[in-house]
Design brief:
Elements lengths: L1 H12 L24 H6 L16 E2 L4 E2 H4 L7 E6 L2 H12 L6 H9 L8 E4 L4 H7 L3 H13 L8 E3 L11 H7 L4 E3 L10 E9 L3 H12 L4 E9 L4 E4 L7
This protein binds zinc ion (ZN) (2 copies).
């Protein structure tokens, strides 16, 4: 009894507080619906002094303005990204993908939408294979696309692009091996494709080597997409060697 009274008194004097989902810091107030501290939200953006590829936002080592992947001719155009796949942003994406924290998608998507300066005709999330979708219950890329759509009033087209094969975990494969693994991994279930003649913003959670995005972008373009840009929450923190941008006048 005394213990309950004491606990009640303690709660009154020092109300129980929630910890930040990402860093564990005590939150000053109950932030709904996602318990993430201001510091973590702010820490998700690119470090200001970081040199990144002008096209895909992946960090560069060496000189130049384009990474060697983009300079070689990337099948997707400009990449909008919130920040690097590390720290608070990496944690948040992990919770979104594997921790059933779907409620993280709207605030993350809103922040990403704020960076998008063009007006694509439609948003296409990178699809999950049906079996993976059943396991997880949702496609995180679709949730991010829906959050962007809510901000920018652009339709999400998420039924026509199909992941035909489970491609397994690709984390240990290099870009060339990933590309090979992804051949014929995606297909389109509608003719003509709903993006035929349109500008597409392809949406995913993380851009690592870009092999998955390239495979989807190729299918989008082969089936009539006029342009394919990308929006991702994070780009891989691994630096890509930069090369000088060469402009050819013809
Ligand atoms: Zn935090
Ligand atoms: Zn690049």
């Amino acid at each position: 009894m005394l213990r309950m009274v004491l606990q009640g008194l303690m709660d009154l004097l020092w109300p129980p507080r929630t910890e930040c989902l990402l860093c564990g810091a005590m939150l000053a107030e109950e932030p709904l619906p996602v318990p993430v501290c201001e510091g973590c939200w702010e820490g998700m953006h690119f470090p200001p002094a970081l040199r990144c590829c002008f096209n895909c936002a992946r960090p560069l080592s060496g000189g130049g303005t384009l990474c060697r992947i983009c300079a070689a001719g990337s099948p997707f155009g400009y990449v909008y990204a919130l920040g690097l796949h590390e720290g608070a942003l990496r944690e948040a994406i992990h919770h979104l993908k594997f921790g059933d924290r779907e409620e993280l998608a709207p605030p993350l998507g809103r922040r990403l939408a704020a960076l998008i300066s063009t007006r694509p005709d439609c948003l296409v999330p990178v699809p999950l294979h049906r079996s993976r979708l059943v396991e997880r219950g949702y496609n995180q890329a679709t949730l991010i696309a829906q959050a962007i759509a809510a901000e920018l009033s652009i339709p999400v087209v998420d039924t026509a692009m199909k992941r035909l094969r489970r491609t397994g975990h690709q984390a240990k494969l290099d870009r060339a091996a990933r590309m090979k693994n992804l051949q014929h991994a995606f297909g389109v279930s509608q003719t003509p494709a709903p993006w035929a003649g349109k500008s597409v913003l392809l949406v995913d959670d993380v851009l690592t080597t870009g092999a998955t995005a390239a495979a989807v972008a190729n299918v989008l373009r082969q089936t009539g997409a006029r342009t394919v840009d990308m929006a991702v929450l994070a780009v891989s923190a691994t630096t890509v060697r930069g090369i000088l941008k060469i402009t050819i006048n013809d």
